[in-house]
Write a structure and sequence with these properties.
The chain is an alpha+beta fold. Helix content is 48%, strand content 11%. A hairpin with a 7-residue loop joins β2 (54-67) and β3.
Length: 546
């Protein structure tokens, strides 16, 4: 059943992407392509639900202009179309709200204006504007006409985030359930969703231009603002902020924006800052688990190539989280390889170590993973015995490593080869679209294996698209009739798409040379994807908050 509804969602998302103003949605592309950015209110217009899409024509009255040659008070006429959510009846999609929000706009070929999608998920009028409260900028958030668009937008969004955080308080914190491979199953409230959407756009602004806002937030008494502030300062290269992760771990572990905190470390080179690295490692292995921080820390520690980082990595090899174990294995191998031979671990690498290294996380190969963990723990025991003159930290596994899984914890499920093949096809199609947009014409296949692979992927992709089109029709008919889609019809379509994928795999297995098929099969198996399902609630048990 989970696979079925996953495929339905993918079919609906594919249709929405096809009608989007920028193709498949990207928040970075929206910000980069926007010629006009403004805050304004819909002053009039109409929306027509024609069944498979909604056609919108509205006028937006500019209030404050962040970028572009629009005068405050002017009306900007916009036209676009979008695919309605399967839960939106025509009476909802045909209504134009008098709503205020953030608009990102570019001109179209006809000389008019087209809004760019700003919502990660379909929302009001397809997510083509970000609903915001209309507010007077408070002290500390004002800006002048000469300020850059990034500085202006950072202050506008910062003011909204502060207002939301003050009103919601601890209600912004999100309930998370740790998955067996590091996933988090969480149900967002509307306020949480709005807060995260605004925070996502704030993270796109230039870190230097947004620094005053990040500094204000980092000093805030509210953890949900403080975590955004620390993450923003880290993205701006402020290594000193790493220590704040350790100091605030108890509050940050439950904060709504905890996951982006780990990703903010990506651009920092910590090799020259051992104190910051130790602080990061202690925070990652603390009792207050910050989502995805251990994975990021493992890679940062590995790149350091320092002996005193190895004790942390070896402890992470025992994590109950498959993604953390995979990241720790990659970190250990990276450290021991001592890239460029410039680290303290230079000269330790031996070719026989290669089978115990991976380029993915989670590993998704339990016997191979366990053999690698045993190998590196044994190797480290030998090294530690001879490192009598090196000061090494004393590191112990956190108690949460040995805690029994919660009764409602997600259960791991095997991701089938068919679903892995589907992911490969979607990634290939996305890459081909990107190359076409860049004007890159594919050359002739280099070998018969390449030719067969390209032809098979193209054929399977077209067959899946035809099934997806039928699924979209069924979903839309159910939406217009205000009914649930026919589950048997959808199951039949799911079975048909699975059969198409199996046939494609069989054709490749029979047609490719043995080395080519072996390499492709291993590529599918090594894809860093995992699956889990939430247990069915007991009769009478409360269901998760939606």
């Amino acid at each position: 059943m989970l696979t079925l509804f996953f495929s339905l969602a993918m079919a609906w998302a594919t249709q929405a992407g096809a009608l989007g103003s920028t193709g498949s949605y990207s928040i970075q592309e929206t910000y980069r392509n926007a010629e006009i950015i403004l805050l304004g209110e819909i002053s009039g217009g109409r929306a027509v639900d024609v069944g498979d899409k909604v056609q919108c024509r509205v006028a937006v009255r500019a209030d404050r202009v962040i970028k572009g040659g629009i005068a405050p008070g002017a009306d900007v006429n916009l036209a676009w179309e979008y695919v309605p959510s399967m839960h939106e009846p025509p009476e909802a999609t045909s209504r134009v709200p008098r709503a205020y929000g953030l608009w990102m706009i570019r001109s179209n070929a006809e000389g008019g204006f087209l809004p760019l999608r700003v919502g990660h998920t379909p929302g009001t009028m397809g997510g083509y504007f970000l609903p915001l409260p209309r507010l007077q900028l408070p002290s500390g958030f004002e800006y002048g006409a000469v300020d850059s668009p990034d500085a202006k937008l950072a202050r506008e969004l910062g003011a909204v985030l502060e207002q939301l955080a003050v009103k919601a308080g601890e209600g912004l914190n999100q309930t998370r359930v740790t998955g067996p491979a590091g996933g988090y199953a969480a149900h967002r409230t509307p306020v949480q969703a709005a807060f995260q959407e605004v925070s996502s756009f704030l993270s796109l602004t230039d870190a230097a231009a947004a620094r005053p806002i990040y500094k204000r937030f980092a000093d805030s008494e509210l953890a949900n603002l403080r975590v955004i502030g620390v993450a923003g300062l880290l993205r701006g290269g402020d290594v000193n902020e790493v220590s704040l992760i350790e100091q605030n771990a108890a509050q940050f572990s439950s904060a709504l924006e905890a996951i982006p905190l780990a990703s903010s470390l990506g651009g920092l080179d910590l090799k020259k800052y051992p104190e910051a690295m130790h602080s990061l490692a202690r925070a990652a292995l603390g009792e207050n688990e910050i989502p995805t921080l251990e994975n990021t820390a493992a890679m940062k520690l590995g790149w350091s190539g320092r002996w005193d980082m190895m004790p942390y990595l070896v402890v992470m090899l025992e994590s109950p989280n498959a993604s953390t174990r995979g990241s720790a294995l990659m970190g250990v191998c990276t450290a021991v390889r001592a890239l460029g031979g410039q680290s303290e671990l230079a000269g330790q690498w031996r070719e026989e170590m290669s089978p115990h290294c991976f380029n993915r996380s989670p590993v998704n190969d339990p016997p191979h993973e366990q053999a690698a963990v045993s190998f590196w723990k044994s190797w480290w025991a030998d090294q530690r015995e001879r490192l009598r003159d090196v000061t090494l930290p004393s590191v112990h596994p956190p108690a949460r490593y040995s805690a029994a899984p919660a009764a409602d914890a997600p259960q791991a499920v095997e991701v089938s080869m068919e679903q892995r093949f589907r992911s490969h096809i979607r990634m290939t199609a996305a890459m081909n679209r990107h190359r076409a947009e860049q004007g890159n014409v594919p050359g002739a296949p280099a070998s018969p294996d390449d030719a067969l692979m390209a032809a098979t992927v193209q054929r399977v992709s077209e067959q899946l698209e035809e099934v997806d089109q039928r699924a979209r029709r069924i979903l839309n008919e159910a939406r217009l009739a205000r009914q649930r889609p026919d589950i048997e019809q959808m199951r039949d379509l799911q079975a048909e798409s699975d059969a198409i994928l199996r046939q494609g795999l069989d054709d490749l297995r029979r047609g490719l040379s043995v080395p080519a098929w072996t390499a492709f099969e291993q590529r599918l198996k090594s894809m860093g994807i995992s699956g889990f399902r939430l247990p069915t609630p007991a009769p009478g048990a409360p269901r998760p908050r939606q």
